Amino acid sequence: MTRPQEPLTRKADGTGGPDPLPPPPGGVLWTLVGDVRGLLMLPAALALQVAHPAVGAGVDEHSVFRTDPWGRGERSLRSLQLWVYGGDAAAEEGRRLRRLHRGIQGTDSRGRRYHALTPEYYAWVHATGFPVHHHAIRYLYRPFTEAQERRLYAEWLSVGRVLGIRDRDMPGTVEEFWPYYRKVLADELEATAVVRDLLATDRGLPPPALGPLPLRLLLRLCWPLVLPRFLRLRRFLTVGLMPPDAREAIGLPWTAGQERRLRRFGRAVRIVVPLLPERLRYLPQARRARRRARAEGRLPKARPR
Predict the structure, then answer these.
(1) What is the distance between the alpha carbons of residues 227 and 73, in angstroms, rounded to a whole number?
(2) What's 11's DSSP letter?
(3) What does the alpha-carbon distance between residue 130 and residue 25 come to, in Å, rounded to a whole number?
(4) How far apart are CA 185 and CA 179, in angstroms?
(5) Other C-beta atoms within 10 Å of 49: how many?
(6) Mean pLDDT across 31-41
(7) Which string of b and e fits 143-171 if b means at least 16 CB within 10 Å?
(8) Membrane-crossing residues (predicted)?
């Protein structure tokens, strides 16, 4: 199957053409990315990214995810929301990320030199979101149609252009994506040090600084009781919402009992979340963008999913 001709994206220095456009209001990603259920998928996508030795080494050596885990997570989430809901700011956020990654380089666990902007590594970081969404949707949402899955992939490619990923570095169709994905699983993925850290249930983690001062103090007081349960839940969702073939490639066990628990959890989520008002269902950046698009007549009222 031939790859469709796509418009060129900007070069790494921000020159070479018009800014790529983020996904349109009313698209699949406008529903998924800002929905609170998207938070449940993020750990699986992150673990799949850092299971690549080059990506894992970059995060291990250059990220503050150990010393500032909550701040790192908040900044990543804010950036992700901009890619989809940022409008004109989306492309600038993509350029900022590329500038940020220019100095990230070193040697991975297999003794290979890496640079964060090496096309195959940079593209893999973005590519992981599609198989995780493809798998997790069947638990957390109503099943997608084939047309919706194709639209999801097309919109994922458009976000890749926002990030500066060249068209030739990502498979152009869903049919081309799966052989590429399986080859990376077979040739590259392993339980890197960062994967092991993300799945650990016996590590220290400071309480998040959330909400007003009384809530933060209460959370700090209860944290010794909350932390072990939080870490077990994070591991459960990270492994469970990761595609089974990725689990196998990394060597992550998953039992039939855990699968039953995940299916029960997913049924509860599918019932409860669509009933929430928009102020509780969507994250703040998404709510503001959706409100603005609706006022401009660019976003129809969505039916609950």
Answers:
(1) 17
(2) P
(3) 19
(4) 10
(5) 22
(6) 94
(7) ebeeeebebbbbbbbbbbbbbbbbbebbb
(8) none
Angle at the Cα of 62 from the Cα atoms of 55 and 38, rounded to 5 degrees: 60
Query: For residues 73 and 80, is the Cβ–Cβ distance under 8 A?
Result: no
How far apart CA 208 and CA 22 sit, in angstroms, is 31
- CB under 8 Å to 272, separation ≥6 — which residues? none
Asked whether 40 and 136 are in contact (CB, 8 A), the reply is yes
Q: Are 34 and 283 in contact (CB under 8 A)?
A: yes
DSSP states along 101-131: HTT-EEE-TTS-EEETT-HHHHHHHHHTHHH
Find out whether 26 and 162 touch, Cβ atoms under 8 Å. no
pLDDT in tens, 139-189: 999 889 999 999 999 999 999 999 999 999 999 999 999 999 999 999 999
Domain boundaries, the chain: 28-197+209-283
